[in-house]
Design brief:
CATH architecture of the largest domain: 3-Layer(aba) Sandwich
Bound molecules: S-adenosylmethionine
CATH class of the largest domain: Alpha Beta
Radius of gyration: 21 Å
Strand content: 15-25%
Strand order of the largest sheet: 3-2-1-4-5-7-6
Number of domains: 2
Number of helices: 13
Length: 318
């Protein structure tokens, strides 16, 4: 296999974005995409793009943010799409050809915390959506964003906050560990087994997990430490009717790229009898249109100071 072919093979990122996120269900894909487009539009509102500027979208995936930016500004916008995933870069490049915007796009394989392919002060705007959650050294990524931005350049971020999901998994584990064996509700034992396969459930696991070891306030801290000014953060928590009401879709989708689908967890970690019991209890919950889920997204915008050599001011009321 040559490197071109191996670059096109599925990896965990492309498998999730192109299949597992929507369980390969076209109708559910439309629902998910409509929501992601709203997040992307909000990132772009915060980016304050102008004609003729250069945007670096970090962890561009299929290019949702980048292509919507081009839709807004037109052919004068230059867009650098970076990602660690070769298959996703190939996919985004093919989409750019389909959309007739290939000439204004540059595709770069690099990690968010190592953007050495991009020069100092070489871009006007940095955006990133649902990427920092997977980066172990978020402070280093913020420093790289600061380095590649020109003085006065703008940063706009949206990230999911998974910490509460991990805290819920940890609470289930604590409950199970601190009750006498045999006294814990059977469904709670299975619920914990499911959640612990998708989120860390111990204090140590949470501290070591890039998806769970940060809160929205940590992102503010990283941005300030990197030298950004004019930092504005909003945490949006929406408790709303679940967008999944099909048991089949629920089984085959997963909540983030690093999480196995419930169907895989059931197959690998549950006996046939446990699977039957779990479905009996939980399927009616999934199929109930009144069931709700929580969505937690942090939006952060900031600006690189016009004189970045000056020391960032200290917080007077930390
Ligand atoms: C949830 S997807 C989001 C994709 C895109 N930003 C969007 O809004 O649809 C996460 C993306 O981050 C990329 N990614 C994961 N870890 C990364 C890293 N350390 N550096 C850069 N990109 C990364 C993945 O390849 C994937 O494209």
């Amino acid at each position: 296999m040559n490197s071109e072919q191996s670059d096109r093979r599925t990896d965990v990122w492309s498998d999730w974005l192109l299949h597992r996120r929507h369980a390969d269900d076209p109708e559910y894909d439309r629902v998910v995409r409509a929501i992601i487009e709203r997040y992307a539009d909000r990132v772009l509102d915060g980016a304050q793009l102008a004609p003729g500027c250069t945007l670096a979208d970090i962890g561009a995936g299929e290019g949702i943010v980048a292509f919507r930016a081009i839709d807004r500004i037109g052919p004068s916008l230059r867009v650098l799409l970076t990602d660690i995933s070769p298959p996703l870069l190939h996919h985004a490049e093919a989409l750019s050809v389909e959309r007739g915007v290939r000439p204004q796009c540059t595709f770069l394989q690099c990690a968010a915390d190592d953007l050495k392919q991009l020069g100092d002060a070489s871009v006007d705007v940095v955006t990133t959506r649902a990427v920092l959650a997977y980066v172990a050294d978020k402070g280093a990524a913020l420093r790289e964003f600061h380095r590649i931005l020109r003085p006065g350049g703008r940063l706009s971020i949206a990230e999911p906050v998974f910490q509460d999901d991990a805290f819920a998994a940890r609470a289930l584990k604590t409950l199970i560990d601190t009750r006498p064996a045999g006294s814990v509700n059977r469904f709670l034992l299975l619920l914990h087994r499911w959640k612990a396969a998708q989120y860390p459930d111990t204090e140590e696991g949470i501290q070591q997990s890039p998806i769970a070891n940060y809160s929205e306030r940590d992102l503010v801290r990283f941005a300030q430490a990197a030298g950004f000014g004019g930092i504005h953060m909003e945490l949006h928590i929406d408790i709303a009717p679940s967008i999944v009401t099909s048991w089949d879709v629920f089984l085959r989708s997963s909540p983030h790229p690093l999480a196995p689908a419930l169907s895989v967890i059931l197959a690998e970690q549950f006996s046939a009898e446990e699977r039957h019991f779990f479905e009996q209890v939980f399927r009616p919950v999934v199929e109930d249109p009144k069931s709700v889920t929580a969505d937690r997204i942090v939006y952060l915008t900031a600006r690189k100071p016009l004189d970045p050599s000056s020391q960032p001011p200290q917080i007077v009321n930390p």
